[in-house]
Structure formats: structure tokens, C-alpha cells
Amino acid sequence: MRSRVAGSFVVADAESAAFDLPVTVTLAVTAGPLDLGAAGAQASLTPAGGRAVAISGDGTALLGLNGRAADIQALLNGRNAAGNADDPGGGLYYTSAPNRNDDQNAAEAGAVTLPLTLDDAGSRIGGDTGAGSTAATPAAARRALESTAVNDAPVLSGTVVSPTASENGET
């Protein structure tokens, strides 16, 4: 069942905000697809009032987003670029894998764990580039996703055999 991933995602990078430089956010699940906005694979989306975000893997278990941090945050949260109104073109959605109603992440909270990583390679300026530098990339964030079991309709299959009955030796 396709469900909106609720909650507030925060994607922030000072250089991305100050100089309109891109960052990359990667989201992954072990089973079932992730997608943004309307159903169907999309190569890019633009939050209302923002700039386009390139999308790779929309509708798969590995989703990549490349663009300004504020625009990525707006898309994930289904908000406009200013963050003051809903944007029906955005929002992160998860569809649990068919016939998987069990806990898929062992001891962690939720049925499925959604890790999010941010890579600021596109927005590195100044002292965090070159030999011996240290990237200002934060540790991966993790979000627990719940999966609601769906009662699938039963299926009956087989060969239909014409019944026969006998009475007093006659069929």
C-alpha cells in the first residue's frame, strides 16, 4: 500500500543556501519502492517557488535527489520552497513490498528503516576541498517506517471437473 512518509525532514547546508549550490540526498529501503509526488517515475521535480531537483531511482528502493538543500527539503515534506504552504506536487511516499507484513529491520523501530544521507560535494567551497581536507558531510539520519498489513483477496485456482452422481447404478 502506498503511504505518505509523514514528518518533517530537515536538509540544510550553508553553502547551498548562500550560493545556490547543489547537494545530494540519498534515501534507501530494503524492500518496496520510494517515490516523490505523483505516482510514476520522474526525472525531476520543482517545488512551488523553487528550483528543479534532479531525481534518480524514483519508484525504486534507492532514491537520489540532487539540487539545492532547501528545494530537496521542500519536496520531501510536500511543501513549497518558502516552507509556508503545502505543495501537492511533492511529498515522499513508500510502498511496502507485496506480501511483506513482517518486521524487516530486526531490532530497530518500525517495520522498515529509511536511512537518509547528505553529500555536500557539489557545494564545497573554501577550506573543505583539496588534499587533506575533511568534508562537512553529516552522519546518515534514520527514520522508522511502519507498514500496514493488507488483507489480500483469496485466490482459488485449479481445474474444473464436472461432477457426476449415480443413483441405482445409473449415472
Overall structural class, as computed from helix and strand content, comes to mainly beta
How confident overall, as mean pLDDT?
80
SSE string, helices as H and strands as E: EHEEEEEHEEE
Strand content: 15-25%
Strand line-up of the largest beta sheet: 4-5-6-2-8-9
The number of helical elements comes to: 2
Straight-line distance between termini: 51 Å
Instruction: Give the beta-strand count.
Output: 9
Main sheet characteristics: 6 strands, antiparallel
The unreliable regions are none
Give helix % range: under 10%
Approximate shape: elongated
Rg, nearest Å: 24 Å
Overview of the structural elements:
- The chain is mostly beta strands and 171 residues long.
- Helices cover 9% and strands 24% of the residues.
- The protein has two helices and nine strands, in the order βαβββββαβββ.
- It has helices at residues 14-19, 69-77, and strands at residues 2-4, 23-28, 34-36, 44-45, 53-56, 62-67, 92-95, 112-119, 141-145.
- It has a six-stranded antiparallel β-sheet, with helices on one face.
- Strand 4 (44-45) and strand 5 (53-56) form a beta hairpin.
- It is elongated, with a radius of gyration of 24 Å.
Strand-helix topology:
Layout: E1 2-4, H1 14-19, E2 23-28, E3 34-36, E4 44-45, E5 53-56, E6 62-67, H2 69-77, E7 92-95, E8 112-119, E9 141-145
Antiparallel strand pairs: 1-7, 2-6, 2-8, 3-7, 4-5, 5-6, 8-9
Which terms summarize this structure?
9 strands; 24% strand; 9% helix; 171 residues; elongated; 6-stranded antiparallel sheet; 2 helices; 3-stranded antiparallel sheet; mainly beta
Write a brief caption for the model.
This protein is mainly β. It contains 2 helices and 9 strands, in the order βαβββββαβββ.
